Amino acid sequence: MNEQAQEVQIAWATHWRTYADVHAAAYREAYRGIMDEQYLAAYTPENRQTHYAKLVEAGDGGTSRAAILSINGEPAGCLLICSSKDADLADGYGEIDALYLLPDSKGRGYGRLLLSWGMGRLAEQGCSAYVLWVLEENEAARRFYERMGFHADGASRIIERGRKLVQLRYICSNKTN
C-alpha cells in the first residue's frame, strides 16, 4: 500500500457535501460505458444532496454508516454500510451498500482498506456475514470482491439506470481479512 497518510472516518451531517461530491464523481466514472450516459450526466452531487444528508444524519445511532476515505487530507473514496435489506437472508447480514473510489485512488489498496473498515464496523454491530450487489457487467468490481472473499450466491435482480441492468448478489462470511 502507498505510504501516503490515509484515514477512514464516519461521515456526519457536516460532511454530506464531500460525501456527495466523491460518490457522484466516482459513480459516473465507475459506470461509464455500462450505464446510460444521460443517466450518469444527471447523477450530480447537487441532485443527491438531500439523499446523502439524510443518510449521513441517520448514521449517528442506527445501523447505517457513511464513511469517507481521505488520502493526505483529500477525499478519495466513500462507503455506505447498513443491515442487509434482503428479506431472504437470515439476520446477521451486514450490507456494503456503496463503495466507490475516485479514479486516481484505484489500484493502490484503498478499496481493500475501505471495504475492510466497513466490514469491521458491521462485525462490531454483530454481523456474521456480509452481502453486496454488483452489476454483472462491472467485471473489475466483481474481481475485486472475489479477491476479498465474496462470491456470487446465485441471486440476481434487474435495476433501471437509463436501461435495464442485472445486479448479482455477492456474500462473504465474517472472517479476518
Characteristic terms for this protein:
alpha+beta; 177 residues; seven-stranded mixed sheet; globular; 5 helices; Aminopeptidase; 7 strands
Describe what you observe in this structure.
With 177 residues, the chain is of the alpha+beta class. The chain has 5 helices and 7 strands, in the order E-H-H-H-E-E-E-H-E-H-E-E. The protein has a 7-stranded mixed sheet with strand order 1-2-3-4-5-7-6. A hairpin with a 3-residue loop joins strand 6 (151-160) and strand 7 (164-173). Helix 1 packs across helix 3 (45-58).
Reconstruct the topology from this structure.
Layout: E1 6-10, H1 16-30, H2 37-41, H3 45-58, E2 65-71, E3 74-83, E4 93-101, H4 110-124, E5 129-135, H5 139-147, E6 151-160, E7 164-173
Parallel strand pairs: 4-5
Antiparallel strand pairs: 1-2, 2-3, 3-4, 5-7, 6-7
Pattern of helices and strands: EHHHEEEHEHEE
Name given to the CATH architecture: 3-Layer(aba) Sandwich
CATH superfamily: Gcn5-related N-acetyltransferase (GNAT)
β-strand amount: 25-35%
Reading side by side through the largest sheet, how are the strands ordered?
Answer: 1-2-3-4-5-7-6
Q: What class, by secondary structure content?
A: alpha+beta
Total E-strand runs: 7
CATH class: Alpha Beta
Radius of gyration: 15 Å
Overall spatial form: globular
Total domain count:
1
Oligomerization state: single chain
Major sheet size, sense and barrel closure:
7 strands, mixed
Q: With helices defined by DSSP (H or I, 4 residues minimum), what is the helix count?
A: 5
CATH fold description = Aminopeptidase
The proportion of residues forming helix, as a percent range, comes to 25-40%
Low-confidence stretches: none
Q: State the separation between the terminal residues, measured CA to CA.
A: 15 Å
Mean pLDDT: 88
Pfam families: Acetyltransf_1 (PF00583)
Domain N-acetyltransferase: 22-175
Organism: Paenibacillus curdlanolyticus YK9
Protein name: GCN5-related N-acetyltransferase
